[in-house]
Design a protein that fits this description.
The protein has 12 helices and 5 strands. It has a 5-stranded parallel β-sheet, with helices on both faces. By secondary structure, it is α/β, with parallel strands linked by helices.
Amino acid sequence: MNIRHIFTAIAICAVTASYAQDALQWTQLSRYAAANDSLAAAATRPAVVLMGNSITDMWPERAPHLFKSHPGIVGRGISGQTTSQMLLRFQADVVALHPRAVVINGGINDIALNSGTYSEDLTVGNIRSMAAIARASGIEPILTSVLPAEGFSWRKDLTGAMDSIRSLNERIRALAAEIDAPYVDYFSEMVDEAGAAMHPDYSDERPAVHPNARGYQVMESKLLPSISHLLTD
């Protein structure tokens, strides 16, 4: 190999390493690495992993009752993430923990264009892939609706969010039926009387995206019937 080929190979390796680093940062695999290692070291198998975005991420802080009452539930939500990011870290943050079930809640940030152009087919495909990986790994997948949101404070120019949410939820519900997985419908319980936004009692934000403590209580009441059989032994 001459010197020119050597420099070419070095350049290719450097570019590849750079892209790999960008992918790791984008996926935020380091967020739960220490917590995952602690569970592995203690040989602790969680009963249920909650996989999601900021709605899952904020749950333990805003409404800790679920987690204090059921220590077998662990959260693996990362604020701002789309289903593409969730899929890429699914192995590390779900499968490697060997839970009995995973609750998948994602899609609102896809609709908010957090990773660029929104494709409903891609989002549903990502959720389908996570459910398939879970089931192939002996983990029960539980699918959930996207919560109502009339708009996004970080994307004020975006319109039609509720139409996109309803359409995506119909696809997620159909997917759950197709793969014989439980479907938890948060949306119907949390939408306002006009069907235009999250009920104001359930969020302190305007526009409302993230639940407050009362909103999380509603979510807990909807989720527990689907996972209570996993928390009793």
